[in-house]
From TrEMBL:
It comes from Bos indicus x Bos taurus. Pfam families: RVT_1. This is Reverse transcriptase domain-containing protein. Residues 298-387 form the Reverse transcriptase domain.
Amino acid sequence: MKGISVPLSQRRRSSIQSAKTRLGADCGSDHELLIAKFRLKLKKVGKTTRPFRYDLNQIPYEYTVEVRNRFNRLDLIDTVSDELWKEVCDIVQETGIKTIPMKKKCKKAKWLSEEAVKRREVKSKGEKERYKHLNAEFQRIAKRDKKAFLGNQYKEIEENNRMGKTRDLCKKIRDTKGPFHAKMGSIKDRNGMDLTEAEDIQKRWQEYTEELYKKDLHDQDNHDGVITHLEPDILECEVKWALESITMNKASGGDGIPVELFQILKDDAVKVLHSICHQIWKTQQWPQDWKRSVFISIPKKGNAKECSNYHTIALISHASKVMLKILQARLQQYVNHELPDVQAGFRKGRGTRDQIVNIRWIMEKAREFQKNIYFCFIDYAKAFVWITINCGKF
């Protein structure tokens, strides 16, 4: 009798409690029905440690005083950029954790009223014997608020439908329903095979990002001539401008230091960051933390198992943005000289709306004189990724 082997991993072998075969009802078949009894249980999801997030709206005066005093003891001249940044990073982190309160994250549903929130706070502070009573009271109020909230939402949806407001109708339905994000437990490798283990998925993402940001080392830079003039040293006014122009309330990089902790120090932070940027400009050596990025993958349309169907958002150190903004400002005049006048978009004072108006004008003239127009739309894949800049030694 021919046997059909059933593959089973070594990890799942202990889950089998019993196994047996039964003869098939068809005498002409040599297949046997395999019956097995498994012991299965749900995987326990471990709790992830929440990163420390500062309450930037409550930065005390003690933070600025202590950081300024410790900054005054730093050697800003003879210390290399990497070591100086490590000292600055330690000072800001230690003082911030000690003096700045942690941001409290309280997930509040849209339908919860102030009464329900107060009941929840009382429940969390209540005694054990009163917990059941307080919890039942909170659940009753929360259900009442949810029912009232959804009732108002449904009335607005019906009103928009009756008035023919399609845009408001669809928007209200999306807001009420909420987005759905499926949690993918696997990803495909380069050959299209599914990867389920966390370590394999991490290696695949590392491989993908390395290929994405890989530079062709055989591509020679083309220069029209020999550069004989050098840019001046980094100025404190440039550092001050760059620090003030960085957008606030943004996710911090791997060091976990938001730019608000430097902006509140004003001239003291400008002096320290200027010393670091000056060392980078002279030695072309960047601090290690400034060269690290934390990649956040956001799914796009398409198969969520393909790495190419994700937006890769890089979170960099906020302090490194000071140097990057200075370099960008200095390169801007050369970039504007090389860009043609017809190019618009992502340029100061020349947006794509001007080009849209020009296209509209051309279409009207072509229709007036009965002429054909041919448009060519080109979409560059990963246009903001495959850009390499030779600036400093990374």
